[in-house]
Amino acid sequence: MDIPYWNKEIETADRATLEKIQLERLRKTISSAIRSPFYKRMLGEVGISSGDDIKSLNDLRRIPFTTKDDLRKSFPKGMMAVDMEQVVRIHSSSGTTGIPTVIYFSMEDIKNWTDLLARCIVSTGATSKDVFQNMMTYGLFTGGLGLHYGAEAVGMTIIPIGGGNTKRQIKVMKDFQTTVLHITPSYLLHIHSKLGDVGISRDELAISKAFVGAEPHSENTRLKIQELLNIDAYNSYGLSELNGPGVAFECVYKKDMHVWEDAYIVEIIDSETGEVLEDGREGEVVLTNLVRHAMPILRYKTRDLAFLHPDKCECGRTHRRLSRILGRTDDMLIINGVNVFPSQIEEKIMQIPEVGTNYQIHVDKKGSLDRLTVKVEIYPKLFMGEASQLDALKNRIKEELRSSIVINAVVELHEPGALPVSEGKAQRVVDQRSKL
Amino acid sequence: MKITQISVFLENRKGRLFDVCSLLGDNNINIRALTIAETESFGVLRIVVDKSDVAVKLLKDSGFVANLTHVVAVEVGDKPGGLAAVLKVFADNDVNIEYMYGFVEKFSDKALLVFRFADTDLAQQILAKNDIKVVTEKEIEGL
Question: ipTM score here?
Answer without folding.
Answer: 0.81
